Amino acid sequence: MFDRTNGPPWQGIAGKLSNARFAQFIVPYLSSSCRSPATTLSFHTKFNYVLHLLYLSCQWQNLPIENNQYGHREIHPTKI
After folding, report:
1. Which of 6, 15, 31, 66 has CA 20 to 30 A from 55's CA?
2. Tens digit of pLDDT for each residue in 12-32?
3. Cβ 26 vs Cβ 17: under 8 Å
């Protein structure tokens, strides 16, 4: 169900959820607002960042965030 990011498959907590599993288990429970602006990141990516944050038990500012195609961080530390 989960993709293990490091270590043996029997150890640790999953750090990422595959796109197929996200669509199967999480998407049916999400609601979207028609009045909110379009997001630049997918819900799948945001969910994986939250999983990683819980796994590391660190502050959001210390979370290793990927860079986008322009070289900036994908998401600002004040947003989720």
Report:
1. 31
2. 556 678 899 999 999 998 887
3. yes
Strands 2-3 and 16-17: antiparallel
Q: How far apart are CA 19 and CA 52, in angstroms?
A: 15
Say which residues have a Cβ less than 8 Å from residue 77's Cβ, sequence separation at least 6: 60, 61, 63
pLDDT of residue 80: 58
Q: Which tens digits make up the pLDDT trace of 54-70?
A: 888 888 778 888 888 88
Quick check: 5 and 15 in contact, CB under 8 A?
A: yes
CA distances (Å), origin 63, targets 45, 50, 60, 68: 14, 10, 5, 15
How far is Cα 65 from Cα 15, in angstroms, rounded to an integer? Answer: 13
